[in-house]
Amino acid sequence: MEVLDIIKPENQVFCKSQLMTGNALSYCPGCGHGTANNLIMEVIDEMGISEDTIGVAPVGCSVLAYDFMNIDMTQAAHGRAPAVATAIVRTWPEKYVFTYQGDGDLAAIGTAETIHACNRGENMVIFFINNGIYGMTGGQMAPTTLEGMKSSTSPYGREIATMGSPLKITELIANLPGVYSVSRHALHTHKHVRKARIAIKQAFENTRLKKGLSFIEILSNCNSGWKMTPNEANEWMVENMFPYFPLGDIKVAGKLKV
């Protein structure tokens, strides 16, 4: 096949998991949510656990996840996904259960549910998509919004004196004894996608082995909320979010990484 032929639509190969429904995604073009959705479905498909997996999505950009992920899904009220997931885990302990939450949902509206589910060590996986903003509801400041970062509710930038510091909730959660593994990843390059995939597979393996709660944070851009192009948003994420929210393992097999 000639190189020019590869770009023809009929010859293109799309790396889409068979567990993605094929419905048009509701996420903004350039957002990391679509990649995250597909990656989770890839791992579930590879592990052959699609019939035994239940996902929980609350209010936020992931609210229509059931339209995209071809597995059993249920919704939860804003911030309450860990509570709903706890009920599922307690009812069907043989299932693989995960929540898929944004930073405004998990780290603000659902702080209590998140902290207590983690502290109890519920046998589930929590996926935390951190784009530093309330993406779906108008671009308001979130707990993870960086100092000086502008949003619809902090138009002059986040001011620490009156608004507090950005919350490193992932590090906070890592210190809870019920949490078995914690890591932070990004999806803006092939290398980072591969690392995130390994972590996702290990998290579901932890569920199989009844190790308790696995927590995976994924840093993502929000080019529409940040008022940038996708490329600009990725560059901004690397230059500004990575130093404050460093990538890598934070807790492995119940032990904090020093």
From TrEMBL:
<dbReference type="GO" id="GO:0030976">
    <property type="term" value="F:thiamine pyrophosphate binding"/>
</dbReference>
<dbReference type="GO" id="GO:0045333">
    <property type="term" value="P:cellular respiration"/>
</dbReference>
<feature type="domain" description="Thiamine pyrophosphate enzyme TPP-binding">
    <location>
        <begin position="66"/>
        <end position="217"/>
    </location>
</feature>
<dbReference type="GO" id="GO:0016625">
    <property type="term" value="F:oxidoreductase activity, acting on the aldehyde or oxo group of donors, iron-sulfur protein as acceptor"/>
</dbReference>
<protein>
    <submittedName>
        <fullName>2-oxoglutarate oxidoreductase</fullName>
    </submittedName>
</protein>
<dbReference type="InterPro" id="IPR011766">
    <property type="entry name" value="TPP_enzyme_TPP-bd"/>
</dbReference>
<dbReference type="GO" id="GO:0044281">
    <property type="term" value="P:small molecule metabolic process"/>
</dbReference>
<dbReference type="InterPro" id="IPR051457">
    <property type="entry name" value="2-oxoacid:Fd_oxidoreductase"/>
</dbReference>
<dbReference type="Pfam" id="PF02775">
    <property type="entry name" value="TPP_enzyme_C"/>
</dbReference>
<dbReference type="InterPro" id="IPR029061">
    <property type="entry name" value="THDP-binding"/>
</dbReference>
<keyword id="KW-0560">Oxidoreductase</keyword>
